[in-house]
Amino acid sequence: MKTYLLLLLNLSFCCQMYATDVDTTFIIESKAAMRGLIEDVLTSQSLKIREEASKELEVLLEKTLNQKESLEHDFAQLEGVSIVQPEDKALRIFTWQLYIDKEHYQYRGFIQTKEGKVYRLKDNSDDMRTVEFSIHKPENWYGALYYNLQEFKSEGKTMYLLFGYDAFDFYNRRKLLDVLYFDNSGRPRFGKSVIEIKDGSGRMRKVKRFVMEYSSSVNVTLNYSKEQEKVIYDHLVYGSPIKGVGPSNVPDGSYSGLKLGKSGFWEYISKVHKDDPANILVDATSYERMIQNEKEQPKKQQKDLFGRKK
């Protein structure tokens, strides 16, 4: 870590020398330093080193993004830092994951706009409740590793669907669909009631963000399909995929979705065919129907999954 600290001091001095017209050498050298820092964040066995490297990465990346020349630089070589941006390059978002322990992960990030404004994202998800209905500022962010972004129009404004991953805890993971927009003062905000979902009780609700929590033993899809112009995600049902552990959500083999309506809302679709429709054995309501039918059957007629009487 000492090598990175010395390099940071040298880069800071360089930044002061070129306050009005910074030499692009600063950006090039800072990217090299950041590659070493993110490697420590992701691979070090020491929590202290991971945390220190993440803090130094935040400081250095913020300094770098505040140089006007940085807008012209590609940061793709920062493996371990996810970077997403829309096609018009109006902004880009940098995020990375910090492993604390097997039950705890935190996230760090920045938003950089084409006007050169930089916003640090502070993960405050540990203290959040009712996350589906809250509006967040950069300093009060639901932290996630963003892996995709989709621009759309709503209420006469440009907004962005953000697709994020949250390692959450040892037995459960989360994927979320957040909404980024800029308020009347030009500051970023997260969360907007433009998403329609169906909850576990079958009720239709409008939420500010959509959160999928599922067992760490399974893979779950949540992404935007350009071909179908829809958000497509696994329909989840309650199960016990890990022996000796409490129940969690798992995919049932069907896919639900969201499609942007004329009103600027992402409207719920109960069943979405993906690839070969013949492979979809159950739709998004079949699990609920199965439970309801079982409740309605007389006790003597109830059968198990193999057709045997209970």
Protein architecture, described:
By secondary structure, the protein is of the alpha+beta class. It folds into 2 domains: 1-79; 81-299, no CATH class. Helix content is 21%, strand content 35%. The chain has helices spanning 2-17, 24-43, 47-65, 286-296, and strands at 82-84, 91-101, 104-113, 118-122, 145-154, 157-166, 172-182, 188-190, 195-198, 204-207, 210-215, 222-225, 230-239, 248-260, 266-269. The strands form 4 sheets. Strands 5, 6, 7, 8 and 11 form a 5-stranded antiparallel sheet that branches. Strands 1-2-3-4 form a 4-stranded antiparallel sheet, covered by helices on one side. A hairpin with a 2-residue loop joins strand 5 (145-154) and strand 6. Helix 2 (24-43) packs antiparallel against helix 3.
Please summarize what this structure is.
By secondary structure, the protein is an alpha+beta fold. The protein has four helices and 15 strands.
For the record, the count of structural domains works out to: 2
- What characteristic shape results from the CA principal axes? globular
Span of the ends, CA to CA = 64 Å
What is the beta-strand fraction? Answer: 25-35%
Order of helices and strands: HHHEEEEEEEEEEEEEEEH
